[in-house]
Amino acid sequence: MELGSHIKTRRAELGISQDELAGRIYVSRQTISNWETEGV
């Protein structure tokens, strides 16, 4: 499983938005989106 897919799956399991995850790890929401769509 690629990292981007893993991030998206875990985020969904935790029921948090990209924005909430971004805030928790101090990156932008766009960064999370890029990771999830590009597979890092």
Short structural description:
With 40 residues, the protein is mainly alpha-helical. It contains three helices and no strands. The protein has one domain (3-38).
Commentary on this structure:
- With 40 residues, the chain is an all-alpha fold.
- It has one domain.
- It has 3 helices and no strands.
- The termini are close together.
Key terms for this structure?
mainly alpha
Structural class: mainly alpha
Radius of gyration: 9 Å
* Main pleated-sheet profile: none
Q: What distance separates the N and C termini?
A: 11 Å
**Please, how many domains?**
1
Oligomeric state of shown chains: single chain
**Overall form:** globular
Q: How many helices?
A: 3
User: Roughly how much helix do the residues carry, as a percent range?
Assistant: over 70%
- pLDDT average, as an integer? 94
Approximate strand percentage: under 5%
As residue ranges, the low-confidence spans are: none
Number of strands: 0
Provide the succession of SSEs.
HHH
Task: Summarize the SSE layout with pairings.
Elements: H1 3-14, H2 18-25, H3 29-38
Helix pairs in contact: 1-3, 2-3
